[in-house]
Amino acid sequence: SPTAESRKPAHSPLTVAHRGASGDAPENTLAAVDKAHEMGIDWVENDVQRTKDGKLVVIHDTTLSRTTDVEDRFPDRSPWNVTDFTLKEIKTLDAGSWFGSEFKGERIPTLAEYLDRITRNGQDLLLELKSPELYPDIERQTLGELRTEGWLDRKHTKSKLIIQSFDKNAITKVHQQNPAVKTGFLGTPKTNELKDYAKFADQINPTSADATKKYVDAVHALKGPHHKRLEVFTWTVNDAETARKVADAGVDGIISNKPDVVSDAVAKA
Ligand code: G3P
Ligand code: CA
Q: If the chain, 269 residues long, is cut into consecutive pieces of 10 residues, what is the mean pLDDT of each piece?
């Protein structure tokens, strides 16, 4: 019988590079999506927020501290919130050195720059509206930018783009403002509440601990706003064993900092 290492799951979910291939390059940078591309990973996840002067940028934390040199560059601007810096200021920051000296000079991308790069790479996008409560109307602005950048044409809308959030209101707004766009809710609603989520969300995206077969089956039993079976993308899985476990539970996608490891673990036999 196959060893644990060589065993392949019966079912082969998609692999999504979390914040790009963020185990091997600085998260949410162009270097991280390029790294995922080099690994042959089609899907990337990112986080979108807004600068003081109203520009959409790709960054996970609501402050600039952890992933840039902002504290050295702007020592008087504590607590270094993304919302308190203009794009021009943000573009002076080094978003790569914290991860490794070979990434020195990497910048925080605007959403437009990011979309341009992944379009060139032929990648698909799981876009997260991060802390949307801080950014009034970011749903409409994000949809507008996606349209400008050519991401809401038929092809992309159908298969290349999902907008997700922990914030139910934000996902509801995205669905109302552009019902064609696929959406995902981040979290684990109670199974008796899933029917409500299925009115506006095409995916329910729980942690890997919550992605049991029982829960995945309960999600799959429902149809989403586009009359298709609700999907499950789970996060954040960085090792082969857990990847095989959630694949066996039936998830449709696995969001990972080590997408090369995960895609290999769940590849078809
Ligand atoms: O895509 C799932 C995951 O990104 C949610 O958590 O904190 O990494 O944005 P976080
Ligand atoms: Ca995220």
A: 62 96 98 98 98 98 98 98 98 98 98 96 97 98 95 76 98 97 97 98 98 98 96 98 98 98 93
CA of residue 1 to ligand 1 center, whole Å: 36
Please answer whether residues 83 and 57 qualify as being in contact, where contact means their C-beta atoms are separated by less than 8 angstroms: no
- pTM of this prediction? 0.96
How far, in Å, are 172, 258, 259 from residue 8 at the CA level? 37, 18, 16
Q: Which of 28, 60, 236 to mutate to test the pocket of ligand 1 (most atoms within 8 A of CB)?
A: 236
Ligand 2 centroid – CA 189 distance (Å) = 18
Distance CA 109, CA 87 (A): 10
ipTM (interface predicted TM): 0.99
Q: Domains of the chain by range and CATH?
A: 14-59+109-265 (3.20.20.190)
Q: Active-site residues: which are they?
A: 18, 60
